[in-house]
Amino acid sequence: MKFNTIKLLSLAIAVSLVAVNCSDDDDNTTAPTEINFSGTYMQEDQMGRPAINTVFVNDGMKDTFNTTVPSEMGAAFQAAFQAKLEALSPAYDPASPEDANALGFTAEQFTGVLATDVLTVSLDAPTTFFDGTNILTGRNLTDDVIDVELILIFGGEDGLTNPEYPGLTSDNVAANDKTFLTSFPYLASPW
After folding, report:
1. From the CB of residue 102, how many other CB atoms can be counted at a distance below 10 Å?
2. How confident is the model at residue 7 (pLDDT cuts 50, 70, 90)?
3. Under 8 Å between Cβ of 53 and 65
4. How far lies 89's CA from each of 95, 107, 117, 150, 166, in Å?
5. C-alpha dihedral over 154, 158, 161, 163, to 10 degrees?
6. With the CA atoms of 149, 155, 156 and 162 taken in that order, what torsion angle do they form, in degrees rounded to the nearest 10?
7. Which residues contact 119 (CB under 8 A, 6 or more apart)?
8. What is residue 190's predicted lDDT score, i.e. its pLDDT?
9. Dihedral-angle region of residue 143 (phi above 0 means left; psi in -120 to 50 means alpha; beta otherwise)
10. What is the 8-class DSSP label of residue 100?
11. Signal peptide span per the entry (predicted)?
C-alpha cells in the first residue's frame, strides 16, 4: 500500500511539472537572423599556455594579469616573471644574465615571451609547442606541454640536465590516459 502511495505521489508531481511547463506558445518559428555582439564584455581569464599563469603570476596580480590585453602584458609583467624565474630555477643565475635555456633565451628574453600569454601559431612550420627544432608554432594535443615548460625553466642550456634538481625536467606522465580520436572532436571520450 505504501509503495502505491509513493507511485501516485510521483505521478502527481510529474504531471504538475508538465502542466506548469506547458504553454500555448507553440509557434516558435522566429529565430535570430544574426548574432548580436552589442553590449559590454570583459575578459575574465588568460591561459594561452598552461601553467604560465599558475606559476608566474603572483596571487595579488591574478585579476590584473587575466584582464590585461596581450599587447600590454610583456611590459607589465616581464620583470615580475623574471624575478620569479630566477628565484625558482638555479639554471638562471641573476649574477650571470647570459645563462640561457634550451631555446638559447636568457631569463629576460624567456620571460618576455612568457609574459605575453598567448598561444602562437605558425602558418608555415609544423604545429608544435616545442619539438627540439620548432618553437611555439602551435600546439598538438599530443604535445607534452608541461614537460616542455619544465625543460625550459629547469633544464639549463641543454634542456636535459639540472645538477641541482635533476627530477624537475619532467612530470613523468608519458601520454594521455586514453588515445586521441583521429577525427573531430579529437579528444577521447570521458571514461
Report:
1. 19
2. low
3. yes
4. 13, 10, 20, 10, 12
5. -80
6. 150
7. 48, 49, 138, 139
8. 79
9. beta
10. B
11. 1-19
User: For residue 106, what pLDDT is reported?
Assistant: 92
On whether residue 124 sits in a domain, the answer given is yes
Report pLDDT digits (tens) over 32-90. 678 777 888 776 777 777 688 888 998 888 889 988 988 999 999 999 999 999 988 88
Which three cell numbers mark 42?
570583459
41 occurs within a structural domain:
no
In a domain, 33, yes or no: no
- Dihedral sign for Cα 80, 86, 87, 89, please: positive
DSSP string, 116-178: S------SSS---SB-SSSBSS---TT--HHHHHHHHHHSTTTSS--SS-GGGG--S--S-SS
Q: What is the largest CA-CA distance in the chain?
A: 84
- Which pLDDT score, from 0 to 100, does residue 162 have? 63
Q: What is the average pLDDT score of the chain?
A: 80
In a domain, 115, yes or no: yes
Domain that holds residue 70: 52-169
